[in-house]
Structures are given as C-alpha cells and as structure tokens.
C-alpha cells in the first residue's frame, strides 16, 4: 500500500476561518484515497481562509477548492475588520485622496468640508483602508486612481460620519 502525508484539520473549521498552524496536522493515508487537489504542505494552508459556504470537519483533508487567500476572497475587506468595526465605503467624488498612492493597509483621516470653502474638519483620524476599488469593483494597483475607498470604521464612529453627511446634504 502506497502511503502519503496529507494535511487535515484538527477540529471543525467554519467558513471564513483564518487557518493557523494550530488548526492543522499531518495524517498518513493511502494514496488512492487522496483527491487530486489535496494539500500536502502546511505552508500552503497557513494564513488562508476557509471559503464561503464551506465547512471543514475534524480530520477532513484540506483541498485547494476549500481554501483561499485574502487576495482571492470576494469579501476581503470584511476579513480585515477587527471586532466592532464595519466597512464604510466612500466614492471617489466625495474623497480627496492622496492621488493614486492609496492602497489596502494605508491609514487616512476622514474630514468633511465645513460651510466655508477650503475649511475642513477632521471627524475621524487614522482610519485603516481595507479596500481600494476601481469602477468595476476590482482592487486597484498602486498608481491607479480609485473609484471607491473602503474603510474599517469603528462602530462608535459611524454615527459621526452619518451626521456629517446629513449636514453636507442639508438634512
């Protein structure tokens, strides 16, 4: 019998779980039981996410079709949120950006223009950018002008943004 080492999960892992080394182990099994897309190396798994609508059960072999990297994830901005944060989207037409240098992982201040021309007030400082999208919804590369900026905003700061938007719109 031809035995091979494959990677399996130690316990059940639900969708969107970030896989850590503690979540997986090596199991020796018969080669004829191993699917074509089985993963054989821990480094190919650690730091990836269980795909949406997938659950990995205890002792289940990990297949490439069950996992994805952050860049492959359609909901990547949500995966980057900390506890008590929400994604807040700003369109380019309401954003004064740092040109085409803005990218995921950057930090920005959110400011609104006050009643007088050229007068601004910062409402949130040091906000993490979790996505920078073009008009087709694709993540932009550095050097490309963004269409939508996605920010990781703390829940308690969202009301401040909404209030500022109401004032701008005259509501």
What characteristic shape results from the CA principal axes? Answer: elongated
Instruction: Supply the helix-strand structural class.
Output: mainly beta
Strand order of the largest sheet: 5-8-7-6
CA radius of gyration is 22 Å
DSSP helical segment count:
2
Stretches where pLDDT is under 50 for at least 5 consecutive residues are: none
Report the major sheet: 4 strands, antiparallel
Report helical residue fraction.
Answer: 10-25%
The share of residues in extended strands comes to 25-35%
Can you tag this structure with a few keywords?
171 residues, mainly beta, four-stranded antiparallel beta sheet, two-stranded antiparallel sheet, 11% helix, 31% strand
Q: How is this structure best described in words?
A:
The structure is a single chain. The protein is mainly β and 171 residues long. It has helices at 76-79, 155-169, and strands at 3-9, 24-30, 49-50, 67-68, 85-91, 107-113, 120-133, 148-154. A 4-stranded antiparallel β-sheet has the order 5-8-7-6. A two-stranded antiparallel sheet has the order 1-2. A hairpin with a 6-residue loop joins strand 6 and strand 7. The radius of gyration is 22 Å and the shape is elongated. 16% of the residues are buried.
How are the SSEs placed, and which strands pair?
Blueprint: E1 3-9, E2 24-30, E3 49-50, E4 67-68, H1 76-79, E5 85-91, E6 107-113, E7 120-133, E8 148-154, H2 155-169
Antiparallel strand pairs: 1-2, 3-4, 5-8, 6-7, 7-8
Kindly summarize this structure in a few lines.
By secondary structure, this protein is mainly beta.
């Amino acid at each position: 019998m031809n035995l091979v080492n494959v990677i399996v999960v130690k316990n059940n892992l639900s969708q969107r779980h970030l896989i850590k080394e503690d979540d997986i182990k090596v199991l020796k099994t018969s080669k004829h039981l191993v699917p074509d897309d089985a993963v054989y190396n821990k480094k190919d798994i650690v730091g990836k996410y269980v795909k949406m609508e997938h659950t990995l059960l205890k002792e289940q072999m990990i297949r490439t079709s069950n996992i994805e990297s952050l860049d492959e994830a359609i909901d990547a901005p949500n995966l980057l949120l900390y506890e008590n944060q929400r994604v807040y989207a700003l369109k380019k037409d309401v954003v004064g950006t740092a040109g085409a240098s803005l990218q995921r992982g950057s930090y920005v201040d959110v400011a609104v223009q006050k009643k007088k021309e050229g007068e601004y007030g910062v409402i949130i400082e040091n906000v993490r950018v979790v996505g920078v999208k073009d008009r087709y919804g694709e993540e932009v590369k550095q050097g490309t002008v963004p269409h939508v900026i996605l920010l990781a905003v703390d829940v308690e700061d969202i009301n401040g943004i909404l209030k500022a938007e109401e004032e701008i719109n005259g509501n």
